[in-house]
Amino acid sequence: MNKLRPVGVIGTGKYVPEKILTNKDLEAMVETSDEWIVSRTGIQERHIAAPEQATSDLAYEAAIKALKSAGMTAEDLDLIIVATVTPDMAFPSTACILQDKLGAKGAAAFDLSAACSGFVYGLATATSFIKTGIYNNALIIGADCLSRITDYTDRNTCVLFGDGAGAVVIGEVPEGRGFQSFDLGAEGAGGSLLNLAAGGSRLPASADTLENKQHYIYMNGREVFKFAVRVMGTATVDVLEKAGLSKDDIDLFVPHQANIRIIQSAMQRLDLPEEKVVINVNKYANTSAASIPLALVEAAEEGRMKEGDRILMVGFGGGLTWGASVLVW
Ligand code: ACO
């Protein structure tokens, strides 16, 4: 058998829609306050897609930047994975819509549903294809338009979410660099804590599902919070162990941006100073699958990592799912 190839990030791009929804704006929509939102979540504003923009449009903007930064054209791609819980439609997949828009002729394309962990799941999937020599170059995008499934009359959820897309091109990298380990997992028993109940085969869209607001995100915030704190800890330990590293080896921590308090609890557990942690939940809120790539790409654009730095990504989300990875930049 051929030796497994080292695989890493060779291009990055991100996109957020222009429109910004601030906490002040939300104060006029539901009974909430900037003070409550900032102190409980760390969120100050979020970006919201324009009416004519769908998830594939956000993904496209991020993708063309990632291809440019990799020095590639769409025709160089063998595989496109779009991690999302807000596809343009049930089918065709958002990845296929994007493949056509990019002109990535012949590339395999599929969507991946693992909510906020989707981007890391996508990285693990594409890395396996490239390591084994099946494909050479893959585009992995986390993209979501959560505003389309958010009930803006429900203060429990509407302050938490935003729209955006982050993309990476991955391919073979020099020995010693690239993805060192992955830790993916799920607890399906917790699925009902965070879901969108209707519009699938269980509860097709009907007057009743509309009336019952079952086309919006439902979340048991407290239980998801507990799950998040727990798995951020366990996944981090597991993924570091698989990479043969300890927490002191981490140069940059890129956590899922759902709530500043969840990020702070992970920082405490890992004993990480703020300069080693990427935090942008204040600007973008929780963008689900886009959250980790938006943070990773923004850190790269700000010059926060240098060659050889060890980056730890960790996310959790609906499913319930989690995903973590150690990447040498
Ligand atoms: N403004 C003012 N008050 C509010 C608001 C708001 N926007 N939202 C809720 N409250 C109220 C509640 O009604 C509740 O009032 P009550 O005690 O009278 O019932 C009170 O604030 C406290 O509610 P808690 O649930 O205890 O608030 P908590 O401190 O737990 O924060 C939060 C809630 C922010 C949702 C938190 O639980 C959280 O972040 N959970 C995790 C969410 C998450 O990470 N989701 C990720 C996955 S998303 C995905 O996969 C798409």
UniProtKB/TrEMBL annotation:
Question: Which intervals hold domain Beta-ketoacyl-[acyl-carrier-protein] synthase III C-terminal?
Answer: 240-329
Q: Which UniProt keywords apply?
A: Acyltransferase, Cytoplasm, Fatty acid biosynthesis, Fatty acid metabolism, Lipid biosynthesis, Lipid metabolism, Multifunctional enzyme, Transferase
Enzyme Commission identifier(s): 2.3.1.180
Instruction: Select a single GO molecular function from the record's annotations and give it.
Output: beta-ketoacyl-acyl-carrier-protein synthase III activity
Q: Which GO terms describe its biological process?
A: fatty acid biosynthetic process
Record family assignment: Belongs to the thiolase-like superfamily. FabH family.
According to UniProt, the name of this protein is Beta-ketoacyl-[acyl-carrier-protein] synthase III
**Organism field:** Paenibacillus kribbensis
Q: Gene name, please?
A: fabH
